[in-house]
Amino acid sequence: MKTPSNKRSLIITHDVDWPLHGPGAAHVLARQERFPLEVIRKVKDENFNPYFGVPNVMEIEEKFGIYSTFFFRPKYDDDSEVAKYEETIKTLLSGGWEVGLHSNNTATFEEVTQEKSLLEKAAGQRVYGSRVHYLKISETTFANLAQAGIKYDSSLSFDKQKIDVRNTGYLVKKGLVVFPITFMDAYLFTYMGLSEETIVPFMVNIIEKLFTSGIEIMTLLWHDNSVMMKGGRLYGELIKQLAAKNDITFLKGIEAYELVQQQATH
User: Fold this and answer.
1) Phi and psi for 47 in degrees, rounded to 5?
2) Which of 22, 134, 149, 214 has its CA 20 to 30 A from that of 35?
3) Residue ranges of E strands in 56-208
4) Nearest CA among 6, 15, 26 for reference residue 263
5) What pLDDT, in 10s, does the model give residues 78-123?
């Protein structure tokens, strides 16, 4: 698998899987073991939505001068559209973050184009990156994305049970630059069985080992709806420890794409 040279780069990404108002208090309370007590109190007393973590992520990253990519779905499971997120999206874009397409369906070029248009209308500008919801890709996915004007995608995961070097670097499919997902919060806490106590040391150690072995670029997915959950709330500490190393370049997806293009012309 190809990697850009002379870099220790980590692409930071977030999927915004839930509508702006969240899944509702009943949904959260049925899963309250996932949350700290103070969050559950707010859900009960204020109908608080702990799944909307975009502002929390922004606050963490801005503290360290990091700007990442947020992938928004054009339409959510309750049929609300991404237009509900327009204010959030424009705040992200004006602040230096990137917004990408979290496709629901890539079966045809027309469907991709329609979904991309919904997001671009909310963003007020073109978008160039994508990640397919649930990572549901098919043989036609990459060609349809490329035809619709998407420049890079990050939907591939070769192994969710363990950290796999195939999920590092990048590859090219149908003219599209593809960054496999090296680390996903959900997989770390489920398939890999990590705990709050072990997640940060594990991540810092494995990232250093991979860089030392010659891997030059990796991709992290941390969902915005997890940053108030047990486990997911360690995102701030993870970024703090990684930023303290001073030798990691944190990238948005589009910056990683541009890096690949630069390397290709030299």
Assistant:
1) 55, 35
2) 134
3) 69-72, 98-101, 129-130, 152-153, 171-173, 176-178, 183-184
4) 6
5) 999 999 999 999 999 999 999 999 999 999 999 999 999 999 999 9
The first and second tokens of residue 33, run together, are: 């073991």
Residue 98: both structure tokens together: 């990137």
Which among 126, 132, 177 is positioned nearest to 151, based on CA atoms?
A: 177
Q: If we measure between CA atoms, which residue out of 76, 79, 59 comes closest to residue 236?
A: 59
Taking only the tens place, the pLDDT of each residue in 11-70 is 999 999 999 999 999 999 999 999 999 999 999 999 999 999 999 999 999 999 999 999
Contact status, residue 115 vs residue 104, Cβ threshold 8 Å: yes
Q: Is 246 left (phi over 0), alpha (psi -120 to 50) or beta?
A: left
Q: In the predicted model, what is the mean pLDDT of the chain?
A: 96
Handedness of CA 114, 116, 121, 125 (dihedral sign): negative
183-214 residue pLDDT tens: 999 999 999 999 999 999 999 999 999 999 99
Nearest to 238 by CA among 209, 192, 198, 187: 198
CATH fold label, 9-264? TIM Barrel (3.20.20)
